[in-house]
DNA sequence: TCATTTAATGAACAATCGTTCAAAAGCAAA
DNA sequence: TTTGCTTTTGAACGATTGTTCATTAAATGA
C-alpha cells in the first residue's frame, strides 16, 4: 500500500493539527511522539512530514495560530467608558478561553519547549494581548474610575485569575459560563474600584 | 573506577533531588533524561537508582515533599478575625511560593506526568490547601465581612491570581516582595469586601 | 485512456531513552 | 591489615525517538 483511498491534503492537514493539539494538551509536547500523532490521524509517521517540516514547527504553528486568533478576536472599543471596556474584556477572555481549552493549555504550558526564536515570537504576541488589558486599566486610572497601584501587576493578576478558570471549568458542570463570568466580573470590578 | 573518593549517600542523595528539581522545572519532566540529572550531579546514570526506584517516583517524591512542606507551613490562626486571616494567608502564599519557584512550577506543570495513583495523592494535598483558604472565606461570609457569591470559585480565583506571580516575579527586580504582597492584598481585600 | 501530480507507505537511520547488574573501589569497624 | 559494607562505574538491554526516502498507489486533468 502507498497512497490510501480518499486521502487528501485538505483533509489530512487539519486532522494532523487537531490530533497534535489534543495530544499535546493531554500528554505534553515532549511525551507525545510523532508516531502517536500519526496513529491518531490514522496514518504512518512519515506522512506527517507532508504537513510540517518537523515536530517543533508543529508546536509553534499551533501556538502562533492560537495567539493570533486571540488577538484578532479581542474586542476593540476605544470609545466606551473604561468600566464597560473592562467588563467586555473579562467576558471575552472567559468565553474565548472556555471554547478552546486545549490550545490555551498548550500556549501556557509548552513555552519552555519552544526553540528560543519561536519563544520570543510567542512571548511578543502574549505581551500584545496583555497590553490590551493594561491600556484599559490605564485609561480607567487616568479617568479616576479605577484605583490601581501598578497597572502592570493588576494586568497580570487579572489575566492569571481569568485563565485559571480553564483548570476547572467544564461546560455542562455545576455552573454555566454566564454564571462564572458574572462572578469573575464581580471580583475584577471590585478589585479595581476607586 | 567504581566508587569515587568522597562519595556518600548523605551527600549524593540530596544532590540528586536538587538536580532533578532544577532540571524538571527548567526543561520539563519528559524532556529531562536520567542521564542529564546524573551529569548534573556528577555521577553516572546507574548511580541514581541508589536514591530512587525510578524516574516517576523521583518526580512524585519532589511534588509530595513540596505539598507537605506547604501544608505544614500554612498558618493556622482559627481565632483571628477573617480579614486578618485572609491577609496572613495572602502574604504567606506569596512569600512561601517566591522562595521555591522550581518546586511550585513542577507542582503545577507536571501533574499530567504523574501515574494515576500518584496524581490522586497530589491532588488530595492540593485540595487540602485550597480548603484552608475556603474556610477563611466561608467564615468571613458567615460573619458578614466578606461578600462572595461562591466560596469555591473565589478560592480558586485567589489562588490562581497569587500563584501567577511566580511567572514573573524575580527577587531583586523592579518590585520587592513586600511591595508585591501589599498590592495583591489590596486587590484581594477589595474583591471580597462586603 | 493515459500521463502527471499528489499523498501515503514502510523500512531504515543513528540517537537516545529508562533501567539493570556484575565488577570495582572507597569506607568503616575490628 | 583484613573484612564486610556502601557506593559508583561502565557496559549492556530492548524499546522508542524524530526524521528521511525510495517506492507505490490514488487522484486529477487532458
From TrEMBL, chains A, B:
Swiss-Prot/TrEMBL keywords: DNA-binding, Repressor, Transcription, Transcription regulation
GO MF, one example: DNA-binding transcription factor activity
Repeat keyword on record: no
Ranges of the DNA-binding region feature: 33-52
Domain of life: Bacteria
Ranges where the HTH tetR-type domain occurs: 10-70
Pfam families on file: TetR_C_24, TetR_N
Record SUPFAM superfamilies: Homeodomain-like, Tetracyclin repressor-like, C-terminal domain
Protein name: TetR/AcrR family transcriptional regulator
Amino acid at each position: 500500500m502507498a497512497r490510501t483511498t480518499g486521502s487528501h491534503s485538505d483533509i489530512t492537514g487539519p486532522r494532523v493539527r487537531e490530533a497534535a493539539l489534543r495530544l499535546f494538551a493531554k500528554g505534553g509536547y515532549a511525551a507525545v511522539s510523532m508516531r502517536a500523532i500519526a496513529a491518531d490521524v490514522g496514518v504512518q509517521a512519515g506522512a506527517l512530514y507532508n504537513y510540517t517540516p518537523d515536530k517543533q514547527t508543529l508546536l509553534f504553528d499551533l501556538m502562533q495560530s492560537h495567539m493570533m486568533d486571540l488577538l484578532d478576536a479581542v474586542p476593540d472599543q476605544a470609545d466606551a467608558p473604561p468600566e464597560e471596556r473592562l467588563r467586555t474584556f473579562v467576558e471575552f477572555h472567559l468565553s474565548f478561553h472556555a471554547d478552546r481549552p486545549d490550545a490555551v493549555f498548550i500556549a501556557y504550558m509548552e513555552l519552555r519547549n519552544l526553540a528560543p526564536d519561536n519563544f520570543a515570537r510567542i512571548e511578543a504576541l502574549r505581551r500584545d494581548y496583555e497590553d490590551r488589558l493594561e491600556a484599559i486599566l490605564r485609561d480607567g486610572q487616568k479617568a479616576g474610575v479605577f484605583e490601581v497601584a501598578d497597572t502592570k501587576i493588576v494586568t497580570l493578576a487579572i489575566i492569571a485569575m481569568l485563565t485559571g478558570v480553564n483548570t476547572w471549568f467544564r461546560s455542562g458542570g455545576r455552573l454555566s459560563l454566564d454564571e462564572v463570568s458574572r462572578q469573575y466580573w464581580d471580583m475584577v470590578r471590585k478589585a479595581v474600584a476607586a
